[in-house]
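Q: How would the structure tokens look for this protein?
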Amino acid sequence: MTITSSRYRGFFALAGFLCVLATGFAFFHYRSTSNLDTSPLEKVDSAIDFQKEKDYWHTQIVRRGEGGAYEEMVLKGNSMTASRSHVMAHSFGEALFQTKGVEGFSVCGTQFLYGCYHQFIGNAIGVLGLPVVEKFRAACASKSFFDVFPCLHGLGHDILGYLGYSLGDLNKALTVCEASHLGEERNGCIDGVFMEYNIRGLTAYKSGKIEPRKFSVEDVHSPCFDVDMQYRAQCVYQLPDWWVAAIPSPGDIEGRFTQAGIYCSQMNDTSLIQTCFEGIGHIAPPLSDLNPDVVAAFCASAASPDYRASCLSSAALRFKLEGFKDYLGLCERFGLLGEDFARCSRFENKPV
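A: Here is the predicted structure in token form.
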């Protein structure tokens, strides 16, 4: 059964961007260009009653079967805001696990920022502990190419959420994720661990708001130089998402991209700087409401000419993965020339 949400078709991704889904998110925190101008803290949409929704989906799963109930959930979510549909997908994931157990996991898809994945895996690990991770790793591996990365990404979120948010917990979660590496250019589980460490989206269902890891200029590149070197690039890739969400000022979104670019440029490794700007490009399309001209402005604000192509190339792939209908020709529209155009086109033409 294949169901494609009209709003979120992308997964957190692959190559140069391969992340997140959110988020880059793509994301697990719900934000728009309008609600970033006052506070980095975001309220979970109170219009969704989690318990009421969960009870409803429990009834529908029993009545219609898990497949039919999921189809209904997607149709309902397509008419909602991003935050409401995401919370609803979480409620479905919990109802599905409680009704069908681990075997119900195959029903979850990528819709609505992977809410079903996240809640289902989180509930299962909470009940069954880390030994169940291997079962989910195998289940993720059996999914279609389009679904493998976000499946592992959600697994990473939930492993860290189960262990906790200390540096020691982070390192343990990374070790657990290593067994989930299926050979892709980026490890989806590890990307999910770093995103959860920074954004702490899973805490929202206890606190009522998504409150990112506290920001400080002194620790702006933390924890990337405190973890094993093999994880450093994926850690750096996730930092812009945290910066844009957590820095206390400037309030406007373009100013936050500018500041994120400054922090990227302060690294002493050119490879990590490039990775960092790719991370900026990854988060730009969702925060622009999938507007290429706004994304070009974000990348121009953040990156010097030396790294602008890295930002725009990553953004081009994110547009594709988000189901943007006019993604072909984005590299030309971004005004890239020569080697920069060739680099962007490789991302633009990457199969998914």
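The first strand starts at residue 42 and ends at 43.

Residues 82-100 form the longest helix (19 residues).

Upvote if useful.
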